[in-house]
Write a structure and sequence with these properties.
CATH class of the largest domain: Alpha Beta
Radius of gyration: 20 Å
InterPro entries: SCO1/SenC, Thioredoxin-like_sf, Thioredoxin_domain
Shape: globular
CATH topology of the largest domain: Glutaredoxin
Protein name: SCO family protein
Strand content: 15-25%
Keywords: Copper
Strand order of the largest sheet: 1-10-9-4-5-6
CATH architecture of the largest domain: 3-Layer(aba) Sandwich
Number of domains: 2
Number of strands: 10
Family: Belongs to the SCO1/2 family.
Largest sheet: 6 strands, mixed
CATH superfamily of the largest domain: Glutaredoxin
């Protein structure tokens, strides 16, 4: 498009709309390794408890980026790998890691009692937060965040099949990214930095 065509488009009023929308609180899209999900209509709220019984909501993390993962403490590979990656992300962020909160939400509240959940997450990093709730509360948050999970019998016990992705919120509490299990810590840190500045 030539300069004159662009000028005519703006003058006709058709090109004004994107400029107007930018001032209406709409977040700009991101150029990230993760999937940019800015503006989605899910993942808007939660209300779960930590090991002390304190209830946490999304508003409690205002001013910080929030990385949230859903899993269970007896997970043999995906969950510990995700939390180990979060440790590496914090290391790569340096002092900016203070502005990132990592939250691990159990999808197995039957076995992941609060004290066990706290010990599990804090074994990776003392600042990581493990959250749980009643089976009904976990079902509600899984639905709100479009997380799949299912109990799978294994002999006399069971394991959990579940989604293997992390969500990242910006410091204003807006859900911005969906991070695949395959994404590297370096890529994640680079993506998260965009939300911190």
């Amino acid at each position: 498009m030539s300069i004159n065509q662009q000028r005519r488009l703006v003058l006709s009023g058709l090109g004004v709309m994107p400029l107007v929308l930018m001032g209406c609180g709409k977040e700009e899209s991101l150029k990230v390794h993760a999937t940019d999900i800015t503006g989605v209509n899910f993942g808007r709220e939660f209300n779960l408890q930590d090991a002390t019984g304190k209830r946490w909501t999304l508003n409690d993390f205002n001013g910080k980026a929030l990385m949230m993962f859903f899993g269970f403490t007896q997970c043999p590979d995906v969950c510990p790998t995700a939390l180990a990656r979060a440790v590496e992300i914090n290391s790569l962020l340096g002092k900016d890691a203070e502005r990132l909160q990592v939250v691990f939400v159990t999808i197995d509240p039957e076995r992941d009692i609060p004290e066990m959940l706290a010990a599990y997450t804090q074994a990776f990093d003392p600042g990581f937060l493990g959250l749980t709730g009643t089976p009904e509360e976990i079902a509600k948050i899984a639905k709100e965040f479009r997380i799949y999970y299912k109990k799978v019998p294994t002999g006399s016990s069971y394991t959990m099949d579940h989604s293997a992705l992390s969500y990242v919120f910006d410091p204003k509490g807006k859900l911005r990214m969906s991070v695949s299990h395959q994404q590297s810590a370096e890529e994640c840190a680079e993506d998260i930095r965009q939300l911190l500045f």
